[in-house]
Amino acid sequence: MLNILSRITGSNRAEKKDAKRIYAKTMAQSRLPEFYGDNLCEDTTDGRMEILCLHISTIMYVLRGHGDTGAKLTQAIYDVMIDDFDVALREEGLADTGVSRRIKPLAKMFFARAKQYANAFDGGDNDDSLEAIIAKHVCKNIEHSSDFTLYGKNFLENVSKQDLGDIASGNLSFPKFSK
């Protein structure tokens, strides 16, 4: 019976399984303590969301170049991320109405940030430069925004060199963050 339900709901889709692996690895990377602390990213829900957005947006940007399969995987990653937000908010004790009210701004912020990162990766104008976005949203201290910018560029370069199979299996090549 459960196999029939999972086929109907799509919970056994390959891209969903791949998305869960990618999201878990990315979430673990985004929680590393070296991103947070004095004059770095704030160790708050918002700060952690910014670091997660940098990673997920970069992966989704690279997946754009992988046709329909990349698009399906991108959507699955987004769905897994929203499901994770839902679970986290419910664990905080929010009711259904509170969860939906909190997820909408998170999703809106994610899409705005993903668009900004994509424009920066495409070589957008100066206001959309990667360092400007990071200085505005990620880093507490302008002096360290170049460290996050270098990390973001290196991560983009690493993921861009990987084939779709490596990305889908969650074998992401995260660069070392150094300040």
Sum up the overall morphology in one term. Answer: globular
Reading the helices and strands in chain order gives HHHHHHHH
Give the uncertain stretches in residue-range form. 1-7
Query: How many helices does DSSP assign?
Result: 8
Give the total of beta strands. 0
Spatial separation of the terminal alpha carbons: 53 Å
* Average pLDDT for all residues: 86
Structural class: mainly alpha
User: Radius of gyration from the CA trace?
Assistant: 17 Å
Give the total of domains: 1
Helix content: over 70%
* Proportion of beta-strand residues: under 5%
* Biggest sheet statistics: none
Give a nutshell description of this structure.
By secondary structure, this protein is an all-alpha fold. Helix content is about 70%, strand content about 0%.
What does this structure look like?
This protein has helices spanning 2-9, 14-30, 45-63, 67-91, 96-121, 130-137, 142-161, 164-168. It has one domain. The protein has 8 helices and no strands. Mean pLDDT is 86; it is low at 1-7. 72% of the residues lie in helices and 0% in strands. The chain is an all-alpha fold and 179 residues long.
